[in-house]
Amino acid sequence: MAIDPTSPVPKYSQLRDLLLDWIVDTGLSVDDPIPSERELGQRYGLSRMTVRQTVDLLVSEGKLYRVPGKGTFVARPKIEMALALASFTEDMRARGFRPGAQDLVRRVLPASGGTARAMGLEPETPVHHIERLRTADGEPMAVERSSIPLDLAPGLDGHSLAGRSLYAVLEQEYGIILDSGDQTIEAGVCDPADAKLLGLPQGSPVLSMRRRSFANGRCVELATSRYRADRYTLHSRLDPRR
Ligand code: GLP
To answer: Do residues 152 and 220 make contact, with C-beta atoms less than 8 angstroms apart?
Structure first.
């Protein structure tokens, strides 16, 4: 395939699609180099500026990465996260990764006004405040902050959650089986603290999720999670229109 100069689709965008097809067709895999911008310009009859624009786009989409002085390489595919009431552990295992968790903060605190409202609690009801760094194959993936009413899980603060699934602990130790939930997802950027934990430059894009999970009509967990946007994509099945 070649660039179509008569197409209304901008050339950098045509080149994006051509390059992605070419990567698949030639069987390039993760960490393989792609041709230099000069070579690509010659091959497709495009200026260096247009090629640069395409490569910048593919880098920002997380499909390629640059190593200064070395070249441009095929990036790892992003992890597809299902929009379901799954735990991080289940989600990562289903995708062939080894899930992990580091306990960052474990405290019992009075629920703030916003947390209490969102969870249907009286203001200042004691909640477990849990902050964890989630990893996949040892690589930082997300920072998760959860609130869980103390009365639902007394003594949870005594359980280490390092390397463990919170949902499994809730189920096994407290008999809590989550049966429904809701979730809001928006774009965000790493603040300095999250950037440090995730090993990303400050201001890097993240997917910011706020999930409430329920069991028997009671809100068990209110969680805000910040997932690195360079490694995650969201996937949802679309049911037919009614
Ligand atoms: C997801 C949810 C969190 C929840 C976590 C539990 O990541 N966004 O709200 O706390 O799963 O995962 P695990 O059971 O692996 O600790």
So the answer is: yes
